[in-house]
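Record type: ASSEMBLY
Status: queued
Input:
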Amino acid sequence: MDIVGESIKFMVLGMLVVFTFLYVLVVLMGVQAKIINKFFPEKKQPAAPVSGVTPDISEDESRRIAAIIAAISEFRKN
Amino acid sequence: MDIVGESIKFMVLGMLVVFTFLYVLVVLMGVQAKIINKFFPEKKQPAAPVSGVTPDISEDESRRIAAIIAAISEFRKN
Amino acid sequence: MDIVGESIKFMVLGMLVVFTFLYVLVVLMGVQAKIINKFFPEKKQPAAPVSGVTPDISEDESRRIAAIIAAISEFRKN
Amino acid sequence: MKIKHLFFSILIAFAASVSSLQASGGTPAEQPQKDAYVEKSMNELASSFYNTTGLKAFISPKEGVKNGQGEEMTPFAQSWGRLIMFMIIFLLFYLAIAKGFEPLLLLPIAFGGLLANIPIANMTGDHGMLGIIYNMGIANEFFPLLIFMGVGAMTDFGPLLANPKTALLGGAAQFGIFGSLVGAAALSQYTGFVDFSLEQCSAISIIGGADGPTSIFIASKLAPELMGAIAVAAYSYMALVPVIQPPIMKALTTVEERRIVMNTTRKVQKLEKLIFPLLVLVMTLLVLPDAAPLIGAFTFGNFAKESGVVDRLSNEMQNSLINIVTIFLGLGVGSKLASDKFLVMETLGIMIIGLLAFAAGTAAGVLMAKLMNKFSKEPINPLIGAAGVSAVPMAARVVSKVGAEARPGNILLMHAMGPNVAGVIGSAVAAGVMLAIFK
Amino acid sequence: MKIKHLFFSILIAFAASVSSLQASGGTPAEQPQKDAYVEKSMNELASSFYNTTGLKAFISPKEGVKNGQGEEMTPFAQSWGRLIMFMIIFLLFYLAIAKGFEPLLLLPIAFGGLLANIPIANMTGDHGMLGIIYNMGIANEFFPLLIFMGVGAMTDFGPLLANPKTALLGGAAQFGIFGSLVGAAALSQYTGFVDFSLEQCSAISIIGGADGPTSIFIASKLAPELMGAIAVAAYSYMALVPVIQPPIMKALTTVEERRIVMNTTRKVQKLEKLIFPLLVLVMTLLVLPDAAPLIGAFTFGNFAKESGVVDRLSNEMQNSLINIVTIFLGLGVGSKLASDKFLVMETLGIMIIGLLAFAAGTAAGVLMAKLMNKFSKEPINPLIGAAGVSAVPMAARVVSKVGAEARPGNILLMHAMGPNVAGVIGSAVAAGVMLAIFK
Amino acid sequence: MKIKHLFFSILIAFAASVSSLQASGGTPAEQPQKDAYVEKSMNELASSFYNTTGLKAFISPKEGVKNGQGEEMTPFAQSWGRLIMFMIIFLLFYLAIAKGFEPLLLLPIAFGGLLANIPIANMTGDHGMLGIIYNMGIANEFFPLLIFMGVGAMTDFGPLLANPKTALLGGAAQFGIFGSLVGAAALSQYTGFVDFSLEQCSAISIIGGADGPTSIFIASKLAPELMGAIAVAAYSYMALVPVIQPPIMKALTTVEERRIVMNTTRKVQKLEKLIFPLLVLVMTLLVLPDAAPLIGAFTFGNFAKESGVVDRLSNEMQNSLINIVTIFLGLGVGSKLASDKFLVMETLGIMIIGLLAFAAGTAAGVLMAKLMNKFSKEPINPLIGAAGVSAVPMAARVVSKVGAEARPGNILLMHAMGPNVAGVIGSAVAAGVMLAIFK
Ligand code: NA
Ligand code: NA
Ligand code: NA
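Status: finished
Output:
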């Protein structure tokens, strides 16, 4: 089997599907944003915490909890 | 099979068992309370936190922990 | 089978292996400490928290977290 | 009250859709043999790709397409059936998120249902994500018991110990189970609408116990083929407790009764709380060993909590462990919302009986409380009888809310918690009776 | 000291009860065929219900009744046997809760035992809650390894690295294992009391290692039929460390020796702690690969902790994960407290050998420490040898307590932690030797 | 840059070692029959003990020794192969701990590899710790989906919703997948170096998606025999993103382009974020149901988080659950670092194609961004195209760092997060296309 030939066809199909999928998503995101802003606007939302992904924060959390507990246990030692 | 007839018998048996079970439990709770108050009285117990079920509280916990951490991380930012 | 005889042989072999293993470990710990102190010395390390095992502490943690949350929730009640 | 309308219109739409359904054939089929890839032209490739899209599966459903369990699906179940399910699921999302109805369970169940209705993906099959979860802990009833363990660790029997006789209210409310058992049998015997066996009637009637884990446990033992619909009905109606109960409560009581103020409860000692779970378990093993898994898991959680020496473990049961199991239980139960499983006449029967069961349990609890109020020295507000159906702690909150409507400032919550937690034990006992009968 | 009396009187009561037992037959039986329900009169229904009560099962035990594994139970095991087990279990509850003896393990084990002895419910069977747990992680030795991983993540080898030569004390204490191996062999060969094979003797003797997970791991490999009793003995005696060790420690040392003050330990660098688990693992793979699962899990946990870059994971191992596994391990091990498994002569033998093993390990550790004190430049308090049995961290605390009795203010805890953690490694090595021998 | 040298010298050493390897035979063998213990003299005992040491296994490897899967290992794989693996593993430890390269995954994988290469212990076998973990959740693709669920619950689509068109960058970067697919096919067809089938090429090329869970998922479906090497390559290169990407990014952009400042993003409403995961899932089920498990798990996590009503569950997914699964996934994947599995020519091919894939994806993303910048009203910094490979959030951080080098104070992080999270969806779509093709 000419797997190089086949894989090139896959590439064409694949990139097409990926781009189509994401392009439709882009369009729908726009439509959605318009509809929501028009019909369901939020009232005086507090500053949106726009952060990408939070894994590191949760990792820090454990350390900070540990730190808080350490601090507090200094005062609560029995 | 006359399943309605059977199910009525099940109802009689079932309600009888449920009530008997709970009634005996009521009696035993009373007996237990008397025995414990007589022979193992607690000394100056702090106000008993008599709350039903605590799921919501633990859900709040996560939010509050998050809040505490957020607050503290304001001061500990590196 | 003379299982007592066999078990005595096991004892000899076993205690020998255990002691050898731990003795080599003792030697290697010493060598390691020397190499590390010579070639990778730590700079002004804060007081090392040399505690054996921490299960109880983490058990206390939960209680303390609960305590902290209880305290804070007093102020944050909605 | 808009929600009620919404809910019933869905029920009716559902009924209509179901009646247009043909019975799903369904013999377990052999694992599909994977073919080796053969060279394709670009056109063939594109058309073969189109054949794997969901769009194609919706537009041109075919006879002979199989579900995750290898049973054939009707063309209706493949297309319109799935669309109806999506509507039901989006309704559940709306109820869970906007209305706050039992979101912890309704949201994962609904999302599981969404995944289960995706064509081609076969997520409910043995190798699919939902199938793996289902086999891991629902088919063998392990997850419901873990949930029950966690609920036990969260439950405080203090209010019940403070006022033991309210336990009887938790007994009366079990009429919801047995009354609807008779109702289910009658529906089956006297109408051609559905045809339930005695075991199936029993499994369905447990919905009246208002304990999701108990319902799933019993369904798996007595009528596994109905487990999906039973679980969904049980959780849905628990979510609807604030809608279903108040009208019944108000219809059966006078304003004067609803205004009754109850005495403050006595102080309960720690030792009483410690011994109580053991008491319940010992009684169970003497009288009703078939309820032992349920009561055993529940009392283990409670005993661990009240012992005060294994807080690490009891906190775990109440938090991480129950959270993980809730995620999995929800998704696994949701897998039974596949259109071909859910859009059948039996589901409609189960929904009706379930509603009946909740109503009957509520009514029986309230009437029993009225009766006890007659003969008791201390005043008993009949509303607290409604909490006997369990649905902990929502039913107790509903009681408190309805009570406060009648007399602002009258806090019945603690008094309602007694029958509420007794209802959990009562349902488990009723479930045990069913298991014992069919042993 | 009342506890000691209580404990021994239970042992004696146990011995008496056991001697009245007949051997339990036991061939695995076919799954009971579930009969279809047939119509019953109210009387028949009530009487058939009575037949499913635990009361009936206690009052009229029958020949041929089977346990969860399909083996026949003697009438004694069905009635009096269970009552005796309940007494033992309530004693364990008392010790765990009122006396604080290893509650994290003793409480779930005892509750599992309570559930396992409920008649009719068959909770230890393959479809029962305890059976599911057992098959999930105890039969395949997975849970003990996860526990060991968590213990590794909790262990700080700092005290050992600060004073490496105390590792030898953790070696000497393993005489508890090998001495009791000879003892078990002698008991079996020279008396008709019990008849253990060499594999069984080896599995039992690991109790002397004072590590629950190690004991369960080895038992599952060498003598699965004894695993229940071994696990229970191991955990019970670890709980009894504060009762068993002090008299032996005091008998073998003079007051002057117990009053010895040890020098403060040197500061240990982080890099030493990081490399140490790898060092132990590499030595294990070179010398004793059979110990690799135990040592591997343990050092993985420790390495993850000391690396400092995966705190998320090492905290998880130390908290949620070990908590969940502890709950399951306890319940699963408890399933082996079923009367027909536990009330056998072998259990008594195992309890006796286990006690001997702990005593021998303690003695060997103390004597080795005395010897080392003779030849060491720096003073060594012989008490710290007792910590070599592991039972981390309780043995080290006992040492510190006994030391403080002799000289108030003399804190031996850190010095005892060295042999204490070395004892964990020592026991794993000893376990590996056993596995290697029977390969 | 020393790391790069280190890395490539290992690759070269690896290549050298591999070329001296013979193919490992390998037919699954019957379970070794355990022999009964026979009496031994002390000498025999000691010598039989020596035969079970790892030292012996290293010094005198034998033909016919089997790995955990019952396949025969070559003498090279038993001795030098393991030593080479230990070197590679210690390098991974160094990178994870000292250099902070993806320690959460690299450390457990490497430790799993260490355990997998211990002779005699057979930890990768069905009864070994790693084998149990592997069968529990990797063979059936369950763990990758749970990770994906947790990642979904951690992901904030806000930056993407604020600037939707950056999603196209996440599409362009998938050229990393398809370009390397052609590359893999060419390598296989035109050289005698390796011989991959079309399915194998497709599985390998998913490495270019820079999503570990997706790679493992697809490998398990299309080429389970290569899963180990693929997973390792995927995670290793994700760890190497800060090394691989910057040179390519700088080579394809001018300093002026890198200095482009982008406008601040618009405020995104909560409802948009809530609906977005459902939008993605509905599109998936219409167009590409084969991607439903991946997208379904991911969107479930995200929907649970954005719903705001099941914080208990979404916190669980982001913390305890993903931690536990990460530990297990790491150890399980590490089991495929056994010398006989890893030190084969195919691994080298996979490593080379994987590197190519990352480079191609980065380049395609950057070039697409340059193109978009030409035609867009608002300025687009071409660097953010590199974040389209996903590797969330490291690629976005790398973008921000390289951008700040060109213009200090220019924070591109938020702008890079859009293509970054779109890249996750893009890879899942690409993966779904592969599955659909080979259906
Ligand atoms: Na109930
Ligand atoms: Na030990
Ligand atoms: Na990607």
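Annotation: The helical segments of chain A are 3-39, 55-76.
Annotation: The pocket of sodium ion (ligand 1) is lined by residues D 209-211, 389-390, 423-424, 426-427 (CB under 6 Å).
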